[in-house]
Structures are given as structure tokens and as C-alpha cells.
Amino acid sequence: METSLAPSPSVRSAFARLVDYAGLFPPAQLSLAQATTEYREARRGAHAWMLGRFIIPASTLTSASQPGGGPFSVILDGGSDAAAWLESIGSRVAALAVLRAKGVAIEALEVYLPAAFSADRALDEPLQRLRELLESAKLSDLAVYVEFARRGPWKAVLERAMAAAVHAGCGAKLRCGGLTAEAFPSVDEVAGFIAAAVTARVPFKATAGLHHPVRHYNAQSGFIMHGFLNILAAAALAPRVGLETLQAVVAEEDPSAFHFEAAALRWRDQRIDVQELEACRCGAFVAYGSCSFSEPIEDLTALRILSAR
């Protein structure tokens, strides 16, 4: 049973099921057994209301001897080039359909489109192929989040990506970091992605480098890391502010600029009420992947956004 420290309506609206657990991935890179244990413990904890799905590669889930637990958000890991991707995607979907028929709790799919699609082909082709496979396998109810390669002029990539996502009934996925400096999108790129997704009404997930709420310099890695609270506030404000304001929200590094009232989140002079937060979480920023569930909890507690035990 979920226990609760009774967060305010605004805090619950902002963070309910926000964190999808990615303990299998770097930098944690736990074994399946270790990650499953951590996830189960988190689901029994006081902040279980913040915990979303267990992120797992399709190859790992389908090869597990007893794939219990979940609910799962499954990464359709396939080939790194266009031909290999198209060849592998059918077998992955078919295997997942078998597992779901056996009662495995698969709720969502995450897909990376190889850069060749962005460069050389219409993005509609692979997404329509995926949609056809899901419908044939009776998996069309699954939420699908597509990560588009960050290649070429970003504005043009976003326009094509969001149009393709809308046409295929998919969401999008924003990668916010990685192991190299090039893996981190700029403030302008993140703000542009949020603006494009919200304008097109494409729900999105975020992933990588988002263990902490507020944008900051990480001395261990030497990178400036984006913050999940920055992205949440920007996504909630996107329907009614301009790109310049979104860039300022994404770039914000002062934790005191964010403040939760009982019925609203404030960023400086901007007030985001509970209804706007709920709309954002439902149709815009739906979740983000983190290889740690404890770190965001600890940070939000240190900021007095969550209550300490």
C-alpha cells in the first residue's frame, strides 16, 4: 500500500508518477535483479506516488526468465541504421505482444529513430510502419514516445518530427544529456523542443542527465546539467508565454526562483496553477527517466518542496 507524506495539491499535481525508473542504464547500470529490487522497494516507500514505470530494453524483457513486476516502459532497441531498424522492429513488437498476452504489464514504448531517417527519408515512413505493427499485434493502445536524432538545423528537425508524431499518434522524447558534451542539448534547443511539442500537442518524455530538479554545474562530470523542474515549469508555461521566456525558465539555475504554494507553482513572477500543472502532466511533460529514484527525492526534500520524514 502506498504511504504518503501528504504533499500539497500543487506538488502532487506536478510530480505524481513523474519519475520513470531507469536503474538498468548508466550511470547506475544495475543488474536486472538489483534494479527490480530497488524499484519494488520504491513502490513500497513514502514517495511511491511519484514513481512511474520501470524502463527496460525489449531485448532484456523478452529474454528474462520470469518478467514480472512493472509496469514497464519498453525501449524498442533495434538496429542503428535504417535498414536494420526496419528489419528488427517487427520481431520486437511480436515478442512484446506475446508477453503482454501472458499478463506482463507493458504500458508504453520508447523508440529511437536512427539518424538516417532524419537525413534521408520522410519520418512518416518508420512511424507508420511501427503503428501498423502495433495495430496488427493488438498493442495500439500503448503510448509511444519517439526520440528523433538531433541532427541538422534544429528548428527544421523539430517541425518535421512533430508533424510526423502527430500523424502517427505518437509522443516525442527529449534526450537531455549523456556521457559527452555533445549529448547535452543547449538551452535554446530544449526550449525549442518544448515549444514545438506543446504547440503541436505532442506529449513528451525526457531522459538522461535529469537526476536533479534545477539546472546546475556538475563538478564530477564537468557538464552543466538540465533540471527536471525547469522543464516542468517551461512545459506548463509554454501555452501562454513566448520562446524567450521559455529559454529563461530552462536556463534558470537559482532554486529559490521556483516556489510551490498550496495551489500553484511559481517561477519568479509567473504563477502556474494546479489546473495548468495537471494539463501539462497529462498532455505535455508526462514523465522523465532517471537511473536514481532517491536522488530527486533527496533534492526536492532539501529544497523543502517535499516534506522530510
| Strand tally | 13
Low-confidence stretches: none
What gyration radius follows from the Cα positions, in whole Å? Answer: 19 Å
Counted by DSSP, the helix tally is 12
What name does CATH use for the topology? Answer: TIM Barrel
- Give the strand line-up of the largest sheet: 1-2-3-4-5-6-7-13
Shape: globular
* Average of pLDDT: 91
The CATH homologous superfamily is named: Aldolase class I
Give helix % range: 40-55%
Q: What is the CATH C-level name?
A: Alpha Beta
Number of folding domains?
1
Order of helices and strands: HEHEHEHEHHEHEHEEEHHEEEHEH
Fraction of residues in β-strands: 15-25%
The class by helix and strand makeup works out as alpha/beta
Task: Present the secondary structure layout.
Elements: H1 9-15, E1 19-21, H2 32-43, E2 51-57, H3 58-63, E3 72-75, H4 82-101, E4 106-112, H5 115-120, H6 124-136, E5 143-147, H7 154-168, E6 171-175, H8 187-200, E7 204-207, E8 216-218, E9 223-225, H9 228-237, H10 243-251, E10 258-261, E11 264-267, E12 270-273, H11 274-283, E13 285-290, H12 294-302
Parallel strand pairs: 1-2, 1-13, 2-3, 3-4, 4-5, 5-6, 6-7, 7-13
Antiparallel strand pairs: 8-9, 10-11, 11-12
Helix pairs in contact: 1-11, 4-6, 6-7, 7-8, 8-10, 9-10, 9-11
